[in-house]
């Protein structure tokens, strides 16, 4: 029995980061009066799901005492997230900058 | 003075994966509500209530298939009966008295040297803990005789727990009756309470009787008995089932601390196995049924019964790998009973296929005892040529002398092959389940998974000292996570 556990805090942080990202994207689209096309939706959703998976794997690996596994998961899941985010953002920005 | 870095502390939480997913959807308030909502399901009014609980079913992960035959090929015509524990590879007398005495001398010299030289991980407290872990297994009152645990006679007029050791007959009540399915479910619940991580049931027939030890004979008697003069244990000629119970072993001690406590992980589990066995026998006796065997050495082949009961698959290290517990269990405790049970089938979770390409246990084995061949093979020796193996399966066979020599050089109960197995993981990270799903469904990825297991640093010796740990970080009984 541990009286104070901080695991919940890290999971909440993931939730806030993800929620913040969604709110930011929504307000950005509203400002620019723009809509996402289907493949941008797919990329954003996949990036979000992968981000959740990364967060869970990272925190759980630390909990398991597997420090190397925790950081390797950042590499193996973080790189696809960056690729998906860059791809979708570039597509979105190219349209909004033209407008 | 040795300079110490900041101590690593891993915060264990009561938040599980399921809770995490709920939290993502509902927020922390939802989590609290969900956790409170789950609690009533764990409160049982009586045994019937427990039996009807969702926790009482075995519920294998969906990627684990029940199959008619185990994944290791068996030739039941070739199948030999193993004589008994006196032939086990862990009895050094198998190699002769002289070798055994020499090994013992070497072992004691190493032990004393390590204590005197203050070798980390081999201190007097490490050895004392190891001695404590053996009580109940090596010695003690927990080893049940063939026909049941020793206990005072039932005293129905006694002050406290007067029915504790009484059979239904002694109490003048009818014995328990249920369908095989109900009986299995009941035993599964009782087993979890008493210390079995998982359970399977094998009916004794002409095939599976060959997995019993050679000193067990069947006679036309009402009840079985033990005949120490003839060195035989007798079972009655009637319908009998073998209850196969997985006894969990501490992954924390085995994987996350220094070597001497690996031995403790191993022996503590054996000790708990004997305590568990006495209790399950008392349970069966209390239901009004016969029960035989039950210390770790007197029924039959743990791996053979475990595979046939579908608790695990046979693996390269000549032991078993469970899809849920990996190799983090010590033995399959065997209890013979006449309580009718619904048999469980062997399983296929892609483990034996994975063993073909993985080979991590063989690479990491300090004595090189584990077979490195990709494919399993039928035994290439004549009957009796290798007294510690009975022929009958197409498998990988380790070199027992190499294995035991390493242990007797001062690494008791080494367990390195178990510790490094890629199936041996805590169950916190969702990723582990996805990997197991892949192993079951896409064997083509097995090689890549093995490489990733290394790259992620799994199975490495962490080398933390047990005594440096925050006591709150040491799981109760040394056991880990929700499944064990």
In terms of quaternary structure, the protein is: heterodimer
Please count the helical segments of chain B. 15
Biggest beta sheet attributes of chain A: none
- What letter string, H or E per element, gives the SSE order of chain B? HHEHHHHEEEEEHHEHEEEEHHHHHH
Protein architecture, described:
The complex is a heterodimer of chains A (99) and B (484). Chain A is mainly α. Chain A contains three helices and no strands. Chain B is of the alpha+beta class and 484 residues long. Chain B contains 15 helices and eleven strands. Chain B has a four-stranded antiparallel beta sheet, sandwiched between helices. In chain B, a hairpin with a 4-residue loop joins strand 4 (225-227) and strand 5. In chain B, helix 4 (124-134) packs parallel to helix 8. Chain A binds chain B through residues 1-2, 5-8, 11-12, 14-15, 52-53, 56-57, 60-69, 72-73, and chain B through 8, 10-15, 17, 20, 23-24, 27-28, 31, 256, 425-426, 428-431, 455-458, 460, 462, 472.
